[in-house]
Amino acid sequence: MKNNIKNIQILFAIGLLFTTVSCSEDYLNVDSKDRLEQDDTETVTPKEMVNGAYGMLTEWDYAFSYLGITEIISDNSDKGSSSTDTGADKDVLDALTFTSSAGSILSMWQNWYKSINRASIAIDYTENYGLTDENLKNRLVGEAKFLRALNYFWLVRSFGAVPLQDVDLVERQPVADVYAYIEADLLDAIEKLPLKSKYASEDLGRASKGAAQALLSKVYLYEKEWQKAYDMAENVINSGEYGLHPNYEELWRASTENGIESIFEVQGRGESIAHGVQQYSQTQGARGADGWGWGYNNPSETLVKAFEAEGDLIRMNASIIFEGETLWDGREVFEVENPRYNEKAYSSASTGSDDGDKNIRILRYAEILLIKAEAATYIGQDAATPLNLVRSRVNLPTISNPTVAQIWKERHLELAMEHDRWFDIVRTRQAKEAMAADGKTFVVGKHELFPIPYNQLIQTPGMTQNPGWE
């Protein structure tokens, strides 16, 4: 085994991201290993290696940097907190005046590549470990490929052309090639992974066949492969594994975690040994005498008006904590600094704890219905049925012949504060108008992609920058 691990410890040497193999974050109640030392490799199982890749999803980056580049930057949200607290770079992300030196952008670039590195090492380790249980071996490889694909997807929609570890660590590969790599991983994962219902209770939350199909459907949506997006969404829907939870307001409570609507979510545990997504709830919690957090990522007045224009009070009140309200669990939010907070990040049990227990929903069934509906408008299929399933749950009237613009609006309201809005308005070319309505200037030809982090360019001089950035 010592020789094997020497062969498979790929050092994904992309600038700042020289990393040794590490499984420092626990996932799904597996004992932590702060550093995988070469002499210890006989005792590390393939499952623990895969857990190390899952563990990257619980990093502090997702509690702060991720908020900046997914929600605070968009028309959904404002920086929040105190007017004098910049949040490092959240103020300039909010104002669309950030540069290639923005720390949040660098943090996510690093996190996603480190995650890819862990997943790749886990794949090689598992394939060469000598497992006699082929089903387990295939499942673990499938899980790691799903995680690698997820992180590459987040990279490509954020930065466009990016390096692929199997091709070149400096040269950015064409967007089409990155998507092809993602597709290959997900198609293989679909073949290897079991259905969600086939997992034992102790493995609840791991990537499943449905998760890989759902992510691939979303990938195809971004590629404008409408028929493929439609067909893959159909596979998820027809599996019988998922459905809409009847009460939208309950979807972000502990009682519905990993429930019927959940396709894939980051697992939180609320214990220091497995710290959930560290400080995710705390950074977004209400700030002030009646508060429990830092007050960042406040739902915007623009988002409130979007809900009100549609008469969508159910989703508005489930998504936004308003100053002066009493929450579903009896908590009063009276003496606070900001007018609104993200209710989808609220944890009743741990509130402002560093080690939170909040699961982050990454893929859920309602989005798959909306992907099917959007794709259907381009290929002449029924878009009304999947769209109206989503609308009917929140008591909105049905739409007989929905336009793609109506489906985009539905995505906005259904998925509000779930970290997709910025990328949705960019891919649908609504960004300039949407951001202008929010008082911000979106520069066409520049803001569609984030800049490659300045520190990365210094480390790898041959790497090129995105258009419009220095």
Describe the protein in words.
There is one protein chain. Strand 2 (about 160-165) and strand 3 form a beta hairpin. Residues about 1-40 have low confidence and may be disordered. Helices cover about 45% and strands about 5% of the residues. A two-stranded antiparallel sheet has the order 1-5. Strands 2-3 form a two-stranded antiparallel ribbon. The protein has helices at about 1-10, 45-55, 65-70, 90-95, 105-130, 135-160, 175-190, 210-225, 225-240, 280-285, 300-310, 315-320, 365-380, 385-395, 405-415, 420-425, 430-435, 455-460; strands at about 75-80, 160-165, 170-175, 260-265, 295-300, 320, 340, 360-365. With about 475 residues, it is mainly alpha-helical. Helix 2 (about 45-55) packs antiparallel against helix 5 and helix 13 (about 365-380) runs antiparallel to helix 14. It is globular and about 60 Å long.
Report a brief summary of the structure.
It is built from 18 helices and eight strands. With 470 residues, the chain is mainly α.
Average of per-residue pLDDT values: 90
Structural class by helix and strand composition: mainly alpha
End-to-end gap: 46 Å
Across the major sheet, the strand order is 1-5
Unreliable runs: 1-39
Share of residues in strands: 5-15%
- Which shape, going by the Cα principal axes? globular
Helix content: 40-55%
Number of strand segments: 8
The major beta sheet can be summarized as: 2 strands, antiparallel
Number of helices: 18
Query: What is the N-to-C succession of helices and strands?
Result: HHHEHHHEEHHHEHEHHEEEHHHHHH
User: Rounded to an integer, what's the Rg over CA atoms?
Assistant: 21 Å
